[in-house]
Amino acid sequence: MSTLIVISILAIVVLYLGLFKAKQALLPISVLGLVAALALAIMEWNSNAAPIFSGMMHFDNFAVAFSSICIITTILVFLLSKNYFEKISDNVAEYYTLILFALSGIIVMVSYHNLSMLFVGLEIMSVSLYILAGIKRKDFASNEAALKYFLMGAFSTGFLLFGIALIYGASKSFDLAVIAQYVIDRPTGIDPIFYVGLVLMIVGLCFKVGAAPFHFWTPDVYEGAPTLITAFMSTVVKIAGFAAFLRLFSICFAPLQDFWMPTLLVITILTLFVGNITALYQTNFKRMLAFSSISHAGYMLFAIVALGAASTNAIFIYAAAYAVSSITAFAVLMLVKAKTGSENFEDFNGLAKSNPFLAFALTVAMLSFAGIPLTAGFIGKFFVFNAALAQYHTWLVAIAVVNAIIGVFYYFKVIVAMYFKDNQTKQIATPAYFNFVLGVSLIITLVLGIYPSFITNLF
Amino acid sequence: MSAPVDYLPIIMQLLVALGFVALTMGITHLIGPKRKTTDVKLTAFESGIEVIGNARQPFSIKYFVVAILFVLFDVEVIFMYPWAVNFREFGLNGLIEMFIFMGTLLLGFIYVIKKKALEWD
Amino acid sequence: MGLLSILIFVPLLFGLTILLLPKKYSQSYKYFTVAVAVIQLAITAYLYCQFQTGAAFTGVNQLDSYQFKEYLPWIRLDIGKFGALQIDYLLGVDGFSIPLLFLSALVMLIAALSSWEIKENHKGYFSLMMLLNTAIMGVFCALDIFLFYVFYELMLLPLYFLIGIWGGVRREYAAIKFFLYTLLGSVFMLLVIAGLYFSVIDPLTGNHTFNMVHMMNPQNYVPDGIFSFLAHQDILGIPARLLGFIVVFIAFAIKVPIVPFHTWLPDAHVEAPTPISIILAGVLLKVGGYGIIRIAYSIFPDVALNLSFYIGLLGVISILYGAMVALAQTDLKRLIAYSSVSHMGFVLLGLASLTSEGISGAMMQMISHGFLSVMLFFIVGVVYNRVHDRYIYNFRGLATHMPIYTGFVMIAFFASLGLPGFSAFIAEAFSLIGAFNSESVNGLIPRWMAILGSFGILLGAAYLLWTLQRMFFGQLRVKEENWLIKLKDLNVREILTLVPLAFFAILLGVIPSLVFNIINTSVNQFILLFT
């Protein structure tokens, strides 16, 4: 709980630092504040917290784990932001503040115990992101991204809210425990509007996590938004979306699996194919990452489709692996773009010669995305598939495996460019912050890949 | 347990709302006067001078900013009414919480002033 | 830390050292690689000598009788109603893996010695080779199927880069083709592995387990498991065990490679630099054969028994098709690549017979082909390094110009075509005897397969002797004048590389019991699985 307070206060402090021209202090204070928030979050591990604020929020182990992963990823994003925001805007402090506000919304999203809090958290996060996506005021693509994101976001929030309202209508409560009890008490004869509400909530949440067929906003928004914001959106925001999704379904709707599973199954398969096949045809690295993030949403949906005791673990590991790999990919992309001015695959040509470390870090990230053994991504995929196989979704897993192979094809495009193609590019200067972030991501990816027991037994 | 029939009032309300819109639009269309118009008649009247350029130009959003800030603070103040009504029940905690709330608002207000969002020029 | 772990992780350690050493020492990397290979060769030779045979050391499906066992818990995960996920670091060797370990160490040494030709980016090359070395040793030692899979996949990456960066003109295509082919097979295998995991429990702990030795014993299967012997479950209308076997078999058949899954092999071989061709032919193909024995056959013996006819047929097709395509080649390296397809067909034919002779022959063929294909690829590398050409008709009458070289070529060619006195003769003879006897012993494969298989030897003689005649005999004539200066005879390093290979090829041809004694116990235990 104190995590949320610290982050909120931190956001205001950073805002005022910007106001009083203390630009140099922005980054250190943001990072220190987040580290403090992280420490506070971890201290609540296994404290058997009860729901607080009249059952509004519940800072249980689930919330602690997902808050921690979101905070860590945000810290990594912040470390990459050194000198980045200054280049594209004068309002640097607002950047940090908005990201921190979004993060506070995310903390609410992963620890809600009441549907109204889910809505509030989602809105705090979304509104901050609408501004962040469009923060390059003079840039057409950025404006388009912001507008698209805003319209789609508002639309999806409508679905979500309507779903919440209908569920309230049936169960007469916003409280997760009460709703769960409502479902358990009625093996038959659940009010039909409850089902309608459930489907609407699926639609709303799928919009937020960017699952097909509700993914249309993703590529344009990801491409148009500043790269660092894209990195934030495709990691922290997506993870938070899945945490909220999983929390809702595992607490409330688990007994109704027969009802919602087919719907989600179709969405999952569609998401996998749409994400992977479109990613195959991209020439722009950033856009490829956007589509690949759709397909990764598909893999994570897997664990929800096969909801069970292992789901939380599977999503957590997958999310951790996905987050660090994405951060690496975006970090390298930023450096390459700063050098060459564009984001196509050809811009990576010969990177292995000029910057072996960058190339190596990106290679490991791509391998992790593709799910090659001894990277965190493999362990994530393995657990997700295992969870699905345990419930005899053989077909589904076979489809996912086909998709994993398609994935290899486009993830290797960039490896081919870096290692097999030559280009007379000069060395790209990597700032120390970048090396730190890349190194940390690299170590996390490999350690989780080789000895995942660090986080497999958390839950 | 609520039966579907309990939602009948909501459906009625929906129908009435839709019906009102449809009805008014239909009726105005039917009973309103009909005139033949030409392009000249539809142009803006500029005292006989030819219209130059498009009227849809970017304009200063200063007013918009002020307006939205007004709405913002105005809406926040609405919170004070239910709080005031239940003031005694909330006790000291309620007072502290309202101070935190007002403090946050004040911080926002100072930020707005400092950013010179309220200065017209 | 046992010897097997040292064997596996020494190269990794040296690989990291190479990565950390500054660039100015780049000339020393190859000596590191050679040193590692020598250490490994010493370790495997020691293990080979210490290896015990007899009823107490059968291996295969008896976990206690594996030797040099090592065990560490690796991944544990509580997954609710399915108990705890249990993945172990479990190593051990039996009669099937120990000769292949020795072979791998020797091949890695040869590959290291032939890496002198690598001109650029030594650091990357040698560290990747060390990684590959680790993975290869791991595959042959792993007894936990998840660990096996990890090592198996780990082999792919270094090879992908080694072919893709240091390869020939079409290296990019060859590398990704190789990678996708193998990955396609192995990812589906992963699903079968997961399915096996849910059907098998560890008799000691009661958890589900990835231990492949436990998977070989029918009583460890839970009654309603998807791959249970008794439940006869269906997946998509096909019996689950049949499907499981086919998926695993195809995964390894791609690696062996068996016609029709062989198309990656000529491309990969032609584009790969010589040392990588050597590793591919000498070790990687054996991983496929080993996988079929250790996993496909041992875990699904009932299905393997039923499919023997088709497996034998695939073997015969590989033998004949590979040999005939080899006849048509004009690129020396491509010819040898196809001859590998043909020779590996004998492994499959011997295996399919499920007789003691046939399986011994198959194992012998893998080892013998390990030495001989390495020799052949090294021989191609010798010419290619000197003039960067491998077109057979560009060379003629080299015998007078490069006598020592021609001598080794003749040894390698004659050994490969199965001349008595060389290891390949023993291997092919045993495979064919097994296949021939099968009809009377267990009636699994008909006699005509053995007869057709022996035609393969004939075809092998044809393409090898014809090549010998085209390239080495007759009037000395090469494509360009200055080639004659470039085509120097073998230097000391090259002779030192070829001598041990020729030595082993002859040694095993004369005293095959060196191998047969070691594998015999395990082979007999293996056959018991099918009764």
Characterise this structure.
The complex is a heterotrimer of chains A (459), B (121) and C (531). Chain A is built from 20 helices and no strands. Chain A is mainly alpha-helical. Chain A has one domain. In chain A, helix 1 packs antiparallel against helix 5 and helix 16 runs antiparallel to helix 18. In chain A, 61% of the residues are buried. Chain B contains five helices and no strands. The radius of gyration of chain B is 26 Å and the shape is flat. Chain C is globular, with a radius of gyration of 23 Å. In chain C, 61% of the residues are buried. In chain C, the strands form three sheets. A two-stranded antiparallel sheet of chain C has the order 1-2. The mean pLDDT of chain C is 89. Helices cover 69% and strands 6% of the residues of chain C.
The run of helices and strands of chain C is: HHEEHHHHHEEHHHHHHHEHHHHEHHH
Could you say which overall geometry of chain C the principal axes of the C-alpha atoms support? globular
Structural class of chain C: mainly alpha
Strand content of chain C: 5-15%
- Tell me which oligomeric state these chains represent: heterotrimer
Q: Could you describe the largest sheet of chain C, including whether it forms a barrel? A: 2 strands, antiparallel
End-to-end gap of chain B: 61 Å
Tally of DSSP helical segments of chain B: 5
Rg of chain B (CA only):
26 Å
Distance between the termini of chain C: 38 Å
Find the CATH topology of chain B.
Methane Monooxygenase Hydroxylase, Chain G, domain 1
Total number of helices of chain C: 21
- CATH superfamily descriptor of chain B: NADH:ubiquinone/plastoquinone oxidoreductase, chain 3
Number of strands of chain B: 0
